[in-house]
Write a structure and sequence with these properties.
This protein is of the alpha+beta class and 79 residues long. It has helices at 20-27, 31-39, 56-65, and strands spanning 17-19, 46-48, 51-55. A three-stranded antiparallel beta sheet has the order 1-3-2. The longest helix has 10 residues, at 56-65.
Length: 79
Amino acid sequence: MSNDITALTRISPDDPLLTVAEVTDYLRLGETKVREMIADGELPAAKYHRKTLVRKSAVEDYINRHSFPTKVQDNQGEK
């Protein structure tokens, strides 16, 4: 986790900053798990004063990296 806000300086209404509590709601995971993901570098974050902030786009990237394929292929082949 970055210790300064420089990683998050370009704040956009299209890419809001989320608190850990908001990330837990968004991912439907516990706070401990989200904090572990941040500590392990799976989810980029930065500290600002006493808050840990995560870009919404980083959460969406995490979801995309850990999602199932959208299309299931038929493995039976033609007969």
